Amino acid sequence: xxxxxxxxxxxxDSPIEYSGPSPSDVAITASHTWYEKGTYTIxxxxxxxxxx
Length: 52
Prior knowledge:
- The chain contains no helices and 3 strands.
- By secondary structure, the chain is an all-beta fold.
- It is elongated.
């Protein structure tokens, strides 16, 4: 089973969030609160031990 690290950028000035490592067959959830109205671009990626 691969261990996956999840990286999330919330599109505001908050720090990048890292989650894991978690087994690849386990679902994860993430949440965030924005303090100003607006349009935000959320970027997320999953990274395995082989940097894939």
